[in-house]
Input
Amino acid sequence: MIHLKTPEEIDVIARGGAIIADFLVEVRPRIRPGVSTLELDGFADEFIRAHAGAVPAFKGLYGFPGSVCTSLNEEVVHGIPSAKRVLREGDVISVDVGVKVNGWCADSAWTFRVGEVSSEVHRLLDVTERSLWAAIEASISGNHVGDIGAAVMRTVDGTSFGIIKDLVGHGVGRDVHEEPQVPNHGRAGHGPLLREGMVLAIEPMCNLGSKDVKTLDDGWTVKTVDGRPSAHYEHTVAVTENGADVLT
Ligand code: MG
Ligand code: MG
Output
């Protein structure tokens, strides 16, 4: 069942979203060679909890140990922060953050470059980010969930990048993951109708190589099967008649 949110509820989700937006700005200068993903996790936990009533929504969610997911290079999502994972020049790292304020969740992710990256990786990040913005533009009431995936596909079309189909965006609200699922592929005009009051986490994930992914033995980390890098960009948005309101 899809839960529609009231304007007041969306305002609370936006408060968590603003904390995430500020965090993603503040973490950027900390993403540099020599820093471990555990250090980034510690910074995130402290940053989020410094805001009254805010907690990291991922901590303990389904048993996840970190406050954020830190996915390096060929890792796609759900990377577990670790002192052993240290950033190196040329890496890319996706930081995925959830914040819960007064029982309402917001969810966003960004892939950062560590120093200079190769031109093909630079382009992967650029195209994946653009596919997020295209998907957000398609998130207007009266459109369908399929229009969101179609917008991602249109943006990535003409590249050799693989759009991941095994992982999807989702509704967000009292729970981090609610209905509907929001795939990154689809047919315009198909799928659930988008309505005012829907709050969605839209999150295209693209690989430099094959779209195929697998989950590691740690039960969390999803990585590319071919070991090539991946990119992930996510915003939580509220669907309105005039377009999508980005809350993160
Ligand atoms: Mg996320
Ligand atoms: Mg999400």
